[in-house]
Design a protein that fits this description.
Blueprint: H1 2-9, H2 14-30, H3 34-37, E1 46-48, E2 51-53, E3 57-59, H4 70-74, E4 80-86, E5 99-102, E6 107-110, H5 119-128, E7 134-139, H6 150-161, E8 167-171, H7 186-207, E9 213-217, H8 223-236, E10 240-243, E11 264-267, H9 271-285, E12 291-293, H10 300-308, E13 311-316, H11 318-323, H12 326-337
Helix pairs in contact: 6-7, 7-8, 8-9, 10-12
The site of flavin mononucleotide has 26 residues, from strand 6, strand 11 and helix 11.
Length: 342
């Protein structure tokens, strides 16, 4: 059934079909149809960062930037949902078109540029939702905020979402906000992580709630960069790491329609690079900092490789667009049979 729906949706521009899909999902959820149509994944609880995940398959950030569709998404069977990236102020992102399908390789290129309605709107949406599962909230900086002041944007968002989020993801790896990825390097990163960790302690004392902080990195890192990020993570005592965001390396899709579009590449072609970087992090962090894998996961086999490569959870985005919601239970069912690490 999904392949038929997909054929129709893929006739439309990518962003429009995304919006229509959400309209359909929201309606199906409201009339209580969604949970009847979608196969329920086996429950396979995973405990990590002090949280309990119903199954280890999550939705990666960027699909529901404002937290407007949490209820419908939860009925698709995800073990956790990450919303955002959200910034302090609303911003419109880059001009359309800004999302492209590379159907030859089940990939996407996007240069959305953190289009979102701002953190206050997201907070209202989360407060209005009935969802009880694990909710990650992914935060970033506004395009106009200079890099030197980036920490202020992260602190503003962190403070506003702290009590609502199960965990907070610090996104410093989207390629579509100029300069953002520089935050992954040396002194910027140390200062950022130390500042956020201090804020976390302050908020823990004020609220009595511990909300884990997770960093999200790019797959385009060399060994030195992996080493310096790992040192910063260990020194600051961050709670988790998501590997990875989209890639700026388009060499694997050369010659395909849209391959020259600016933006971040996601889906099948980035799987190997994302796994390789994940393995490098795992070798350095061992089990001190848990890993969440994202990047090209579009089958139970690929999810299994990521879990065997040291990840405790997986997230899907592009694979979910190409394969449909059945992918969630396919992966969750596989993981339930493989004696998954916790
Ligand atoms: C259209 C699109 C928008 C995205 N927006 C965000 C975002 O706002 N924040 C973020 O951290 N990652 C964002 N991502 C990256 C995904 O969360 C994910 O890390 C990446 O696409 C790799 O996973 P995949 O190959 O399964 O898509 C976006 C990806 C796509 C395709």
């Amino acid at each position: 059934m999904y392949s038929l729906i997909r054929q129709l949706l893929f006739l439309l521009p990518a962003e429009l079909s995304h919006e229509l899909t959400f309209k359909g999902l929201d309606i199906a959820s409201q009339v209580r149809l969604l949970s009847l149509l979608v196969p329920k994944p086996r429950s396979h609880k995973v405990k990590l960062m002090g949280l309990e995940f119903d199954n280890p398959v999550g939705l990666a950030a960027g699909l529901d930037k404002n937290g407007q569709h949490i209820q419908a998404l939860s009925e698709l069977g995800f073990g956790f949902i990450e919303i955002g990236t959200v910034t302090p102020l609303a911003q419109s992102g880059n001009p359309k078109p800004r999302m492209f399908r590379l159907t030859d390789s089940d990939a996407l290129i996007n240069r959305m540029g953190f289009n979102n309605e701002g953190v206050d709107a997201l907070v209202k949406n989360v407060q209005a939702s009935r969802y009880q599962g694990v909710l990650g909230i992914n935060i970033g900086k506004n395009k106009d905020t200079p890099l030197e002041n980036a920490i202020d944007d992260y602190l503003i968002c962190m403070e506003k979402v702290y009590e609502l989020a199960s965990y907070i993801t610090i996104n410093i790896s989207s390629p579509n906000t100029p300069g953002l990825r520089e935050l992954q390097s040396g002194s910027y990163l140390t200062e950022l992580l130390d500042g956020l960790k201090a804020k976390q302690l302050e908020l823990l004392q004020a609220t009595g709630k511990n909300t884990p902080l997770v960093l999200k990195v790019a797959p385009d890192l060399d060994q030195d960069e992996v080493q310096s990020i790992s040192n910063a993570l260990l020194n600051s005592g961050l709670d988790g790491l998501i590997v990875s965001n989209t890639s700026i390396d388009k060499s694997l899709v050369t010659g395909q329609p849209h391959a020259d579009e600016q933006g971040g590449l996601s889906g099948q072609p980035i799987f190997d690079a994302s796994l390789a970087v994940q393995r490098q992090f795992h070798a350095l962090l061992t089990d001190k900092i848990p890993l969440i894998a994202a990047g090209g996961i579009d089958s139970p086999d690929r999810a299994q490789q990521r879990l065997e490569g040291g990840a405790s959870l997986v997230q899907v985005y592009t694979g979910f667009i190409y394969q449909g919601p059945g992918l969630i239970s396919e992966i969750a069912d596989r993981v339930a049979t493989m004696g998954h690490r916790k």
